[in-house]
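hey so i finally got around to running the thing on that chain from the lab meeting. sorry it took forever, my laptop kept dying and i had to restart like 3 times. anyway pasting the input first so we r on the same page abt which one it is
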Amino acid sequence: MSRDRTPDSHDFPTRRYDLVKEFVIALVVVTVLSLGLAAIFSSPDEKAITMSGWAKADPDNLVTTAASELAGTTTSATYGAPYNSAAEGQKLGPIPLQKLGGVRVPVDSADLVLGPLSNVSGDPKLSAALAHWKAATPEQQTRWATAYTDAIGTAAADGEPAAGAGGEVGKVAASGGYGPVPALSTALLGLAKAGGLEGALTSSGNFYGGDQTRSLLLLSDGAYLEDQAVAQNLGGDQWGMMNEVGNAPGQPWMWLYTFWYQVKPFSTSDNADAEVWGLMMLLTLLLMFVPFIPGLRSIPRWIPIHRLVWRSYDRTAQRR
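ok and heres what got predicted. didnt touch it at all, straight out
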């Protein structure tokens, strides 16, 4: 008696396959490659930059930044939305994208210095300096801070330190109408060295104390953060990339976005952020609507790469 054979029992070639063996081999190969490539090409896992580290590594820059915050001349003070209304900000053609967002996170640059110092108790000189500052008019405050910032720049050009090793303000404060600015800058430097500045900034205006906005703004207004980035090839005109601190993944997918900042006209444009964003949105829309765009959707037929992928299957099908 003959057995019935299903119609499809011999339609496709078959062979024995050890799934467990293949899995183990693949796992070993991928593990060896991952460890080897990670050891050779991995990015450094640097510790997070802190206010304390900044104060100890470059006290002069922190003092200069503190005076500039009081003068209202730092990057964040003149940035515009969402922190203030000091500038129009980024535009996409005639559309002021940054301004349209509005001031959603209001930050007074002077408060980055005065806010943490106001919470310090038991320091009569600091209390007197804060009272002196608050009693002055905004115009007088600006004159004090601007004069002190200019004096620090002159002292730096002459090789004079803005802050001594002990945290005291150096010879730059020996003369001049600086008001309480030198005392305030010195106090902020001392607070940063003691490790209290970062906590005072992150807890400001937040019940849970997790808002890093003010801390990052103050840090980015100084030169120390940028110097550390450039040393790791992470500057705006460099191509470096680094994993986040700890075990969090890095951002390798960001290369397509940051690529455009390296080429003209974006590399020389004041509105590069808005222009690159607009270009990426356009490319994203094109990718989404490829199946509906005449001509573009026909490229696979004109360049039949799929035939190379399916050539093995086609040969097998023809033999059958």
